[in-house]
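INFO worker-7 received task bundle
INFO bundle size: 2
INFO processing item 0
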Amino acid sequence: MIRLNGVGHAFLSGDRVFGGLSATLHAGRVYAVTGPSGSGKSTLLGILAGWISPTEGTVTAPAGLRVSWVPQNPHGVAARTALDHVTLPFLARGARRADAEKDARALLAAFGLVGRAAGTFATLSGGESQRLMLARGIAHRPDLLLVDEPTAQLDRRTADSVNATLTALRMPGILVVIATHDPATRDACTDHIDLADHR
């Protein structure tokens, strides 16, 4: 759980980005953060992660919060398979390879990628690579998963394929926050924070 009390942020110039944001965010929920360009969506993600200090208000979060970030543009190892990308976080936590691959395949299935497990990152479509990054983000088992504009670079059909899998992000113990301009992404989330209300 992360609690925001009157949180706001301003640039060094003094220009206020947003302010007066109070909310309690719970694990097991997926929050969409919306607002026009420049409203502070990415800034709020950084504040939640503890990477940016708000210029007003307070943020209360558990000590030792484990954070994973899924950027707007998917990054992977071109020659590595989709299965490799999702298996690695399980191996890093000490799982045996057979168990790690089993868990990775289950996540790939949840994100509609089980048929692409053997495909290399370089051969994945834009929607497939974005869904792979979401699966890998969950595989890291963070306390907080931050997702920045997952459909911004995608055409409508491909974006819809990503949005259709967002329910798979809703897992016990993981708080997910997605910055987005996409109304369909917003509607696929369980909760909504509109920064236009806090300008």
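INFO item 0 finished
INFO processing item 1
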Amino acid sequence: MPNDEFLASILDLGWSSYQSVSVTRWQNGECSQLDDFVAEEVPVVLMYNGVSHVVMLATPTNLEDFALGFSLTEGIIANVAEFESVKIYHRSNGVEIQIKIPDVRFQHLADKGRNLTGRTGCGLCGATTLKQAMKPPRSVSGDLKISTTELAIVLQNISGHQKLNQLTGAIHAVAWVSPDNGIEELREDVGRHNALDKLIGTLLKRDTDFTAGFMIMTSRASYEMVQKATMVGVTVLAAISAPTALAIRLAEESGVTLIGFARDNSCVIYSHPERVIPS
């Protein structure tokens, strides 16, 4: 059972990130009743200039960062300056995020005709045409080099940063790693794409140079994860699980070094291996 100090650190992450439930556990042939902690998952509606655009199922933490990251990685805005204002309202049935963007961006968004529902594990959820789903890849470039030893150290340390997952066991994480400082930021969510958007939003606010570090995710590497990373210029993306074939093709074409199965002091490099230095 986590102590009060640990639970307080989780609560600091945001509003209703987990719930306590009574469960029946069978273990080694014996039955017991106990309280367990489960990850929260709520509808989060993103509204642009007063009009609903998307409802995502997400962990209700770091929501301003999520809104900023989503807006940029989905091409709704082109830079942080176009994220003019944001207000967050906690409703009885979910969370409403009101975002103000320039009128020209809003008109472009309205012309797309998209109003979508994003489930927890969705990839290209809500895209209504092939053109919307398969966006032209954005090329990235940079001189970053990482060592296999450095990657192994990050993998050993990442679980210690995953407070919500330690509590619930149901949360994805994406971390930003600096070659000199290790894990500098980490964001968690029930949806891996949400965790990535939260992290990107956090780093955008700090005017981060996305070519100066790399990202590692505690999930598989799917197409939309690579696509979102390219939108801000990330050159190295590592995952503890496997990539999809589509993700590999996008990484190869866009210039991203894509690493999979990063665990147990080993990894598989699927594209642009020149950025990884054996050690």
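INFO item 1 finished
INFO post-check item 1: The chain has a mean pLDDT of 89.
INFO post-check item 1: The first strand starts at residue 18 and ends at 27.
INFO worker-7 idle
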